[in-house]
Every structure is written in C-alpha cells, then in structure tokens.
Amino acid sequence: MQKLDPKRVDPRGRKVKILATVGPASRSPEMLARLYKAGVDAFRVNMSHGEHADHEKTIRAIRQMEKDFHRPIAILADLQGPKLRVGKFKDGQAVIRHSGHFTLDRNPEPGDETRVQLPHPELFGLLEKGQRLLINDGKIRLKVIRADENEILCSAEVGGVISDRKGVNVPDAEVPIPALTDKDRKDLAFAMSQGVDWIGLSFVQRPEDLAEARRLMGGKGSLCAKIEKPMAVRRLDEIIEMSDGIMVARGDLGVELEPQEVPPLQKRIVNATRTAGKPVIVATQMLESMIESPAPTRAEVSDVANAVYDGADAVMLSAETAAGDWPEEAVTIMHKIARQVEKDDAYLERVRFLDTPPDKTTADALAHACMTVADTVAIEAITVFTGSGSTARRVARERPSVPMLVLTPSMTTARRLGLLWGAHAVATKDIGSFEEMIAKGKRMALRHGFGSAGSKLIALAGVPFGTPGSTNLMHVVTISGNELDKHEG
Predict the structure, then answer these.
(1) CA atoms within 13 A on the CB side of 276
(2) I need a labelling partner for 210 at 20 to 30 A (CA). Which of 91, 158, 224, 258 fits?
(3) The domain 84-169: what is its CATH number?
C-alpha cells in the first residue's frame, strides 16, 4: 500500500466530510485505501449486514490504514434497529388486490392473498381506523379499517406483490418498542470492543431511546441519532440535546412521509443540529444511480450540492460504496461536487444564512471572534488546541471562512472529529506553555499544508493548558522564514 509522507499530508481542500459505507464492494484493504485517497474521511460499518468476523477485518484494515497514511480515520458502526416485518406466505409471496381487503393477524400459519401474520403483538390494539401501514418500502399501502387485539383489517390503497418478511412502516403512530433489539445490544458490545468512534442508533422515536445506548456504551464513543421516523421530529430538539450528532436518514423517512415533505424537513433537521453545535450527516440515495452507473444524474449532483450549501457536516454514501459497481468513482464525484460548491462565491453566505448566535460563555465568544477575525484579516487557518473536541465544535458551528487545524493529545478525539465540518484533526503531544503552543501551531500548520512563510494563523486554546473547558485565549501569529527552515530541516 502506498504511504504518504507525514510531512506532506495535504488537506482535502473542502470542509464538508465524506462518510462511506463499507460492504462487499469495498471491504478489501486495497479498495479501502483507494476510497480514502479518493476523498473518504470516515467509514460506516453497517451492522444490518455481514458477520462480526467480517466487520472485525474491516475495522482492523482501517486502523492499519491510519498508520499507513498517518491520519486519524473515524469509524461509525450503524445498528440495525427494530425493523418491523410481516410473516411468511404459503408460496413465498402473494398478490394483494388494489382496493381489496387484507388482514394482518397473530396467526403464525403461512399467509395468502387475504392475510398474513404480523409477529409484533405491540401493534395490535395500538392502531386506529384511518392510520396507514406501508409495506416493502411503501410499495404497498394499506389503510386500517378496524383493529383489535388479534386482527388489523385493512383496505389496500395500493396493492401488489407481497413476499416473505417484507418490512412494515407505521408512520401515523408511535410504536412502543425499544430502539435497541437483542441483536443491537450484541452488535453494540462488539463495536465497543473494537473501539469504533461513533454508534448510529436506528429508528429513534424519542429522547428516551438514547438512554440505554448511552449506558451500554459506558462513556466510550459518540452517539449519532438517526432521524428516520416522523415521530422523532416532534421531539427533535430533545433528541439533538441527548445525542452527539444527528443523521438525516432519508430512506425510511422518505417512506413514511410524502416525498414533497422530505426536503424541507431535511433542512429543518440540519439547521436545528447546526444551531446546537453538533455534527449533522445527510444520508441515503445521494448518488443512487452510481450503484450501476459510472456517472451520476444531474438531479443527484444537485442533491449533494444542496446538502453542502445547507452546511451539513458530512454527506454519506450507502450502497454506492458498499455494493455498487463504481465505489471509487462515487467517492471521487462526491469529493468534486463538494469542492466545487465550496469554491462558489455565494457558498459562505449560504452556510451562514442560518443564525447561530454564540452562547454566553468565553469559549463561544472566542469561537465567534475567530470567524470575525478570519473574515477581516488574511488568515490561512484556525489552529485549535483541544482535549475533548468541544472547542473545535464551537468553532465549526460558526462556519468560518478558513479551515481548522485541530491539535489534540487524544487519538480518540482526533478520530471522532472526522465527521466535523472544516476540522483537520491531528493527534500530537500535549503542550505545556504559551511559547510551546505558538511554536507547535506554526510547525503543524506547515507540515499539514496550512500556510507558508508570511501566512497568518489564529491560535485558540485554554490556559492553564490541559484543563478541559478552559478555552480563554485567542492569538494571531505569523509564520516566519525561520519556522519554514526548521520545518524543512
């Protein structure tokens, strides 16, 4: 595998991050390295598919890549969550007539064109007349006529072929099931044992759903709540507060809502998460046609571009890199779209259209000041010294015009920042004095391609050094020729 000289690791040239899903098309060490070089900043391991042994090999290969490329790389383990499914049919499938009646019941016998088992007793007695049931990603649409403890009689607004174990969505009711299944608990324990950086919690409906995952994580890793249920939107602010980041999971969200409802909701979720100063990921079907095609549609390009213009921290590739024919090409075009958008003269105005007033703290005031100074003076980068990453998140919330070089003594923090807008994180030894901070900031800026002789940098840190939550110092420095000589020497 090709190794990068640690003294010549260039920044990506964009602030939005790319999260790519690993699967059969991309799990080999060789393809993972190609995807990283094409622009991937973080990798998603989908626990819905594959065995733990496969995922362990993937995680091991990514950690080896960190050593080869001298860069921290974030890993997000995405839990499957409580997927509702119908039972089985006599012939493996049946046809539901348009406008006909169809019953979901608790009878375990194989189904036919009139009925099938629904092996989820919590739904019986919960549903009411007029509520909808969507089967097979919404291809079949049923409306409840009558529901009791044993049967749910429906009329088929849209019929069609239904087969064994197809998924069921219930958009009009809050289903009283926990966000973690037994499988999820095992997968979570495995992910924690492997040292993953983020956990994606699926089908979150309420803030309480996050509590058990938090407990099982034991203070390790960051928790990303996936918003894919309309019920979650009702308590969105509380869910954001309870999580470390948010994913706009447009797949199931698009099934349970009308298509025209998804774009404004996506913007609402992105804005709310950004206002809270936490990373937000836009996911699902971003370059869907590239599963089979080497080039995206113009509409897909616009979709990715709009997410970047909205100020999302990261954009995600799913089947495009997990199972598609063109994984490297999908990453390359997403990288190019993001870079082109961020070159647009109107980009900065667009991402700052959202008002994110700083909290009344010294740290937030200084983060806001970094943005103002960078707009006023020719600044090359903001050098952020942080232990937990909270200072970097504060700066990113302001969407400054220049990138952040984040220096942290914690590899764990450096990895987690792989999903944070504008952050180029480096794990390095801690600093002990003001002079050491200035010298290291200049040296690391040169090493990582953030400036040259004469470039100005903003240094943001807290005194006393090494004290969490003490951000209270901002300093503008200039790289001199002497530092350039030292770096090259």
Answers:
(1) 19
(2) 258
(3) 2.40.33.10
334 C-beta neighbours (distance < 10 Å), count: 30
Q: Is 44 a catalytic residue?
A: yes
Catalytic residue among 57, 63, 85, 143: 85
Q: Is 85 a catalytic residue?
A: yes
Write out the two tokens for 444: 């690391």
Q: How far apart are CA 64 and CA 281, in angstroms?
A: 25
DSSP state of 368: H
Q: Please identify which of the residues 17, 44, 166, 442 carries the catalytic annotation.
A: 44
> Which whole number is the average pLDDT over 345-353?
95
Whether 226 is catalytic: yes
Report field, pTM of the whole predicted structure over 0.85: yes
The angle formed by the CA atoms of residues 369, 374 and 377, to the nearest 5 degrees, is: 115
- At residue 265, the 3 state secondary structure works out as helix
Fold of 362-488: Pyruvate Kinase; Chain: A, domain 1 (3.40.1380)
Catalytic choice (21, 103, 284, 386): 284
How do residues 96-144 score in pLDDT, each as one tens digit?
Answer: 999 999 999 999 999 999 999 999 998 998 999 999 999 998 999 999 9
6-81+179-344: which CATH architecture?
Alpha-Beta Barrel (3.20)
What residues does each domain of the chain span? 6-81+179-344, 84-169, 362-488
